[in-house]
Amino acid sequence: MSIVISDSVKYIGVDDTTIDLFESQYVVPEGVSYNSYVILDEKVAVMDTVDPRGMEQWEKNLLDTLNGRKVDYLVVQHLEPDHSGSIARLVELFPDVTLVGNAKTFAMLPQFFNIPLEGHTLTVKEGDTLSLGEHTLTFVMAPMVHWPEVMVTYESKEKILFSADGFGKFGALSKTEGEDDWACEARRYYFNIVGKYGAPVQTLLKKAAGLDIATICPLHGPVLKDNLGYYLDLYNTWSSYQPEDKGILVAYASIHGNTAKAAEKLAEMLREKGAEKVVVSDLAREDMAEVIEDAFRYDRMILAAASYDAGVFPCMQDFLHHLQSKAYQNRKVGIMENGSWAPTAARTMKSILETMKNIEIVEPVVTIRSVMKDSDLPEMEKLADAMTAK
């Protein structure tokens, strides 16, 4: 795998193709990349390290690229272990290295590593620069994208933005086709990991708008060089909580299959009424992170759920709490509940939705009693009409 950035800026990251769950919660069937870069100039700077899972290969990549040179600076943009996990090893290899970070970086770093810092740190703040020779780094603070110590770095000679977790995606580089279909796994990555922090991302995008960027080097996923406006526009849409596409997600939670049949029937009605896109998801079985992704992607959503223990079937409650924690907002939502003796799903779903910003709950709320019957169809038609009204 050869990733070309420039004669002076080299990729030394690694692929992890054996990981099953990223952050112990997100399925990654195509693995993930841990990206790290080195800038070779009068001084040598390494931009972040990698997860301990990839440390051995990363060390080989680093030493091969250095070809006998030493590392002068390690720029620590983000302390999450998938990027900081090899810092101690780098300090072992190059005891005189200077670690570059901000005040929050060095407040948090001792929580992860017991390494000597005195005399080996350079604390930077917004707009500070560091000359490596021909290359000059400018540091841009990006707190809460998505940890408080995060910063990104702009290299002005080659117009490179080292973007930390920004513009990252799931997928090992050896198993994905470069930038092809970037949005699919980048969207799932963004909403599930960064999604809560839309306002800080907007702040960072405003800062980035003032930079002349030719290349984006993220800490996961491919290096981005072409059509950068596409990626920046998507991040602007995502971080402002606006829908990306017109469409309706029908997310259902069914115990014995009866709510599932009603959800599928409702989806059929939506398609017949001209809905641009209808996606049906079984919350008990599908990857929760993908359903979260679709909830943010489309402008409308219908929740269909069975009542359970005077509340709602747990996988629906879990889904709604995920949306709540990721600041879901600015959407139209329809509700269909099922209950055999005391339907409670709608009330429970509403109570969670009402904690979210700018959510329009569409009438009517449909109630099914145990099994969908012909007598339920008129109310379902009304909901379908309301959800597809122009």
Question: Can you walk through the features of this model?
Answer:
The chain has 390 residues and is of the alpha/beta class. The protein is 32% helix and 26% strand. The chain is built from twelve helices and 21 strands. It has helices at 55-66, 81-84, 87-93, 103-108, 182-194, 198-208, 228-239, 258-272, 288-297, 314-325, 345-353, 377-388, and strands at residues 9-11, 14-16, 21-22, 26-27, 32-34, 37-40, 44-47, 73-75, 98-101, 121-123, 129-131, 136-141, 151-155, 160-162, 215-217, 245-253, 278-282, 298-308, 311-312, 329-338, 357-368. The strands form five sheets. It has a six-stranded mixed β-sheet. Strands 16, 17, 18, 19, 20 and 21 form a six-stranded mixed β-sheet that branches. A hairpin with a 4-residue loop joins strand 11 (129-131) and strand 12. Helix 6 runs antiparallel to helix 7 and helix 8 packs across helix 12. The longest helix is centred in the last third of the chain and has 15 residues, at 258-272. It is elongated, with a radius of gyration of 24 Å. 44% of the residues are buried.
